[in-house]
Amino acid sequence: MWKKARIAILLAILLYVVVDAWRDQNQNWTRPIAVLLHPINADGTAETQAYIQQLQQYQFGEISSYLRQSAQQYGQNTHFLMLLGRPLQVLPPTVPTQGGIWQSIWWSLKFRYYAWQQQSSVDPTATVVLYLNYYSPKTRQRLVHSTALERGRIGSVNLFSDPQQNAQNEVVIAHELLHAFGATDKYDLSTGQPIYPNGYADLQQQPLLPQHMAELMAGYIPITPQQSKMPQNLEQTKVGAVTAKEIGWAK
């Protein structure tokens, strides 16, 4: 009897995983996309706490407008709702910088468990949940890479708690949000340099370099084959054709 019960439980878990994976890979872009944003005081400073306390939902509206306009360029009439959620006290698990596939799998399981632990009945229903880890520029001048999972639609996003960085923070948030829908990075992981051709925003530009915009998933504007710079805001970025295909905006 117990053996049959265990088999039934395992089959139920397997069915849940399969259905969840199918749902994540078959996004219906005709429905509104609700993105829940949980701010976190990642460095524990008073400056970061003050920054989080002044955050308002409308401040993330630029991301919604940008993504809607980008989707329309590929024939998708999609609305994005950026919802400012509860501030959280616990940081997501740290992304491993070394190790192999098993370390990555273990981290992804821990991240999903973390996301489950942070859920509350007061939270609105969301398509994607992003955990915004804010750091004061006084505590660190460079942030580690952010990351997001397509399976589970969750992301851990590292940002600066500085109003002067708000526009660039929006670029990072939009980048990670598209990761949650299956978009891949289009830069060299060892150098950070955008990869030609998929990491270039305008392949028809003559001369090709320097580019004037960044492909969103490349993250940087190519200046020379070896140099690039971060876009100042979302207006200096573009969702390229390959990225649009990856997330289902184009065929």
Explain the overall architecture.
The structure is a single chain. By secondary structure, the protein is of the alpha/beta class. It has two domains: 28-182, Collagenase (Catalytic Domain), CATH 3.40.390; 184-251, no CATH class. 33% of the residues lie in helices and 16% in strands. It contains six helices and nine strands; from the N terminus they run H-E-H-H-E-H-E-E-E-H-E-E-E-E-H. It has helices at 2-25, 46-53, 61-72, 101-118, 166-179, 241-247, and strands at residues 33-41, 80-84, 128-135, 147-149, 154-160, 214-215, 221-222, 228-229, 237-238. A five-stranded mixed sheet has the order 2-1-3-5-4, sandwiched between helices. A two-stranded parallel ribbon has the order 6-9. A hairpin with a 4-residue loop joins strand 4 and strand 5. It is globular. It starts with a helix and ends with a helix. The model has no long low-confidence stretch (mean pLDDT 92).
Just name the CATH architecture of the largest domain.
3-Layer(aba) Sandwich
Helices, by number, come to 6
Largest sheet: 5 strands, mixed
Stretches with pLDDT under 50, minimum 5 residues: none
Strand order across the biggest sheet? 2-1-3-5-4
Number of strands: 9
Please indicate the count of domains.
Answer: 2
Strand content: 15-25%
Compressed to H and E, one letter per element, the order equals HEHHEHEEEHEEEEH
What's the shape? globular
CATH fold description of the largest domain: Collagenase (Catalytic Domain)
Oligomer: single chain
Cα distance, first to last residue? 49 Å
Structural class: alpha/beta
Mean pLDDT: 92
